[in-house]
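To the wet lab folks,

You asked to see what we're planning to order before we commit. Fair enough. Below is the target structure as tokens, and below that is the sequence we designed to fit it. If anything looks off to you, flag it before the synthesis order goes out.
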């Protein structure tokens, strides 16, 4: 039996003037994601960068953010059961 668990958190970001929201899973903790967002907004940075569990990178302009929803941390089983 080969099993491991990975912690993921779902992130949803609303962007002004778009019909859809950006939604992805991150391997970062909910606290780390929240901290990254808060620091970017407080420093008036022009964008914030996220990386999802698949390695895709998202660059989001902070001026266009209408909302950010950071889900709860969930453990997800990864591997095979034999």
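Sequence we intend to order:
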């Amino acid at each position: 039996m080969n099993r491991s668990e990975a912690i993921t958190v779902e992130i949803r970001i609303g962007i002004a003037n778009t019909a859809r929201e950006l939604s992805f899973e991150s391997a970062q903790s909910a606290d780390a994601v929240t901290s990254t967002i808060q620091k970017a907004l407080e420093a008036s940075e022009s964008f914030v960068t996220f990386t999802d569990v698949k390695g895709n990178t998202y660059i989001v302009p902070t001026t266009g953010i209408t909302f950010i929803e950071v889900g709860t941390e969930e453990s997800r089983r990864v591997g095979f059961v034999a």
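Structural context that might help your review: DSSP finds one helix and five strands in the chain. The beta strands are 2-15, 22-26, 47-51, 57-61, 65-80.

Thanks,
Computational group
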